[in-house]
Design goal:
nucleotide-binding, single chain, alpha+beta, 357 residues, two-stranded antiparallel sheet, elongated
Amino acid sequence: MITSHQNGGPGYVTEDPMGPVNGTEGPGSGAKLHQRERAVDCPPGDRVVRSVNSMVQGSRCSAQMERMQQYQEELRRKREEDTNKGKHEIDLNASLRLKKLAQNPAKTGIDNPTFEAPEAGKETKDGSPLPGGDTAAELEELLEALRRVQSCLVDSQSQADVALLLGLLRKEDFQSALAIHSAVAQQMQPRGSPPLPVTAQAQGLCLEVQYILQSSQHKEGIELSNLLTSPHLQALIQAHDRVAEQELEPEPEESVIQYMGETVKLVRLEKAGDMPLGATVRNEMDSVVVSRVVRGGTAERSGLLAEGDEILQINGVPVRGKNINEVHDLLTEMHGTLTFLLIPSSQNKTPHTERWW
């Protein structure tokens, strides 16, 4: 039997194959036992445990760090692969769309002959063309529209009617008459309100520009500076500022004045061409009185003429004592702005003889 003792110092081992081992002579034994001792150098028990634990934990931490690094590296590679794949797909999709668009034929618009965009040169509400209209171009558009209509017709009689109309429009006499009518109608257009000035401080702006151009060496700058300092232009700018400071208002369409001791009304209406004013007159003794105002006419839209108003003058021409036929002929010869001097109606009277304006 072998027994080993460890106590932080040298130990001894006693071997006794026949009896107990205690390092001494056994009782009842007369022979001297053989003894063998061996030194064992070991650290204390708790220090051994801590050392072992620290070694195990260190190995575990190093293994975890290696796994984390591997995981991060895998994520980075995967992210790069996804980015490259997305770019490739975008480029591929773009190229596919471009190829598909290139294969599609270009779309052509459809000409709508009935559509006409609003522009200068078209007719106003009263039927007269606006200023700036190109009569020749409008006539050509009308001829083109008639030709389209003629090509769509299947009735021979309708085609003959359109051909007759085309022949009339192509005649030189008709085109000359149309040009004269357009020129006269443009001159008879009512004048609008006076234009508003952009600024009333043109002199101040000129002084600022002159100050900026003092250091300019360009040919255009020197020329502009000479123009702005010329006496004629400065006088023109000064007159412009004085006029712009005034508040100009359009002439009123209706005003009340005194005429031969009576309160009268001054009314202005616009007559375009041969368009009627939309009112009838009658004779009462030697007076000319408005008998009826037609709904939708110029007189009714303006609201300046009323039934029972007595007309004293038209554009300064007295009409009292004239019959309705003479008044009709007088109005037929007048165009543009018509100024009526009226006595406002006090009561409606039964008309005797009427004449349409």
